[in-house]
User: Which sequence fits this backbone?
């Protein structure tokens, strides 16, 4: 498998994992009213999962597959500095995603509203950030029309997916009390 094919495969897997992350987070919320636990209780286990899979899994792959060292000084300092910054951005993203899902749930929606905005928006932010980082690079080539068209299509996609993603039915409204039929007026015969 070529490196490009591997990149696409792992990108699709990432989209899958992150795509089911929001609905899974919805299952971590208390369904009782009032809630039995804070919406941030699951966040502790999100962090634990990052620790286990990120640190332990990353260390094993770093050593076993790449025969790398645990040195983070000198030329390796960027791995620690930028890795910590990227991890912090991811953690803040998970935190703000929790706020978004909680408030969407309070509004009667939930992950179905939030996830298209998050991931459609992330694509656009990534493109803009890439441009800002590279804008002074010699020979930079940007095809603005296709890029801006793509961003517009992403925005349209966010709106359509957020609006038409299946949502749970709203709770049934209590039936209106039926008034007994009024007595017919008495007639004198």
Assistant:
């Amino acid at each position: 498998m070529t490196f490009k094919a591997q990149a696409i495969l792992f990108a699709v897997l990432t989209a899958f994992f992150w795509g089911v992350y929001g609905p899974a987070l919805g299952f971590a919320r208390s369904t009782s009213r009032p809630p039995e636990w804070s919406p941030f209780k699951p966040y502790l286990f999100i962090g634990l999962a990052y620790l286990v899979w990120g640190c332990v899994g990353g260390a094993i792959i770093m050593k076993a597959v790449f025969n790398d060292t645990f040195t983070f000084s000198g030329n390796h300092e960027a791995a620690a500095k930028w890795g910590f910054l990227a991890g912090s951005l991811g953690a803040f993203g998970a935190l703000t995603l929790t706020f978004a899902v909680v408030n969407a749930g309070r509004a009667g929606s939930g992950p179905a509203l939030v996830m298209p905005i998050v991931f459609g928006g992330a694509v656009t932010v990534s493109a803009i950030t890439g441009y800002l980082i590279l804008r002074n690079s010699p020979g930079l080539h940007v095809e603005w029309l296709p890029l801006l068209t793509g961003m517009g299509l992403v925005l349209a996609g966010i709106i359509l997916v957020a609006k038409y993603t299946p949502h749970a039915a709203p709770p049934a409204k209590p039936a209106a009390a039926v008034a007994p039929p009024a007595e017919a007026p008495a007639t004198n015969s």
